[in-house]
Amino acid sequence: MTTPPTHPRDDVGARVVRVLSYNVHRWGDDREALARVVRACGPDVMLVQEAPTWWGTRRKRRAMAASFGLSYVAGGARNAILVAERIELAQSLHWRIWRPFVRRRLRLIATQLPGGAVGGRVQIGTTAAALVVCHLGLHILGRQRELEQVLRGCRSFGTPFLLVGDLNETPDGPVWQRLAAEGLTDLGADAGPTFSSTDPHKRIDGAHLSPELTGRIVPIPAEVRDDLPKASDHLPLLIELTD
């Protein structure tokens, strides 16, 4: 009798897929601390917000992925998907999201970077599921329009989906209400605040799951808790999807 592997598989795909959603703050903080956090979480798929951009984007993202023991497979705007060797990401899609270039807050006027989302399909046992990551903007009304574009992209896979991202809004806001109206399960409802990592006091990072799928938030390993404030300004969400 043989011992089952850590990530049990059948003839189609892994029956447990571990997904890490993380705003990595442009890979600009303590890179060694960030690598320790990611490696301790042991994700099959990492859905990244605020991935490094500008000059040498792909080179930097590949280097970042390698520091985690993962591979960079897809990206769009400031989002990226990294995978472990044992996982195959199929039908990867990325799309631009229309976003107001200028936002106003009180008497201040500021510009926003272009928005986008990226996703791909994985097998969870015999179930096909899409994994999609986005980063919504700071314009209050703009976020709602962005979300509609993201949801259209999620539906385009024709499968149940997990949508994660930095929503830049707390759960009492209209974006979260729209996600609930879509019938998605808020996996992080009991997970606590996600921002900031040095003083966690509000939840602005989400993980929302189609009702056809089974998933849960699992704790970040205790041995890297001290690394979290150094690794990024956000806290990660670690999700287990099961067949």
UniProtKB/TrEMBL annotation:
* Domain Endonuclease/exonuclease/phosphatase, chain residue ranges per copy: 20-205
Question: Pfam families of this UniProt entry?
Answer: Exo_endo_phos (PF03372)
Membrane-spanning ranges? none
Q: Which GO terms describe its molecular function?
A: endonuclease activity; exonuclease activity
Q: Which UniProt keywords apply?
A: Endonuclease, Exonuclease, Hydrolase, Nuclease
Q: Does the keyword Hydrolase apply?
A: yes
**InterPro entries found in the cross-reference section:** Endo/exonu/phosph_ase_sf, Endo/exonuclease/phosphatase
The protein's name is: Endonuclease/exonuclease/phosphatase
**What species was this sequence derived from?**
Kribbella sandramycini
